[in-house]
Fold this protein.
Amino acid sequence: MIRKQNIARQRQYGISVSAGGQVTKWWTGNVYANVFNNLFKGVVNGDNVEIGATAAQFNISNQFKFAKTWSAELGGFYTTGGADGVFRIRDFGMLNMGISKQILKGKGTIRLNVRDMLYTQKIRGDIRYSNIDASFQQRRDSRQVAVGFTYRFNKGKVNAQKRKTGGASEEQNRVKTGGEN
């Protein structure tokens, strides 16, 4: 028999640190780290369960500008093993990269992005308490490659003429000014 139910209590302590900024003239980066301890307690299927673990998560994001029209990104995350309810999750992570080039006198950009380039976002774990002993794994196709093109018609220039927004906007302006236009 399978029943869905919540564990009675969860306690979590942790600390996180984030830093970012310009490393050099051509390199900007962000780093995030989170270390935490989870403890789950309760009764599941008539058995007392107490599962806890200390885990950490790390994220990094880097942007690079080289040559006048080229830029790149490199980023990813790593999560150590930890506990989530009755599950013990093993470590996993992912590394992403992208490169772009401005073309057509700066009006166009072509991009190549690769997600999970090392194919490491494979989530695995187990459940072990009372008379339950089970393992699981999630192996989806997380590696993706994308090519994109963007064209900027105005290249960020704001149109000098104000666009007409329509009747609803005009009615709203009449209400704000006491009904006269």
DSSP finds one helix and eleven strands in the chain. Residues 9-157 form one domain. The CA atoms of residues 37 and 145 lie 35 Å apart.
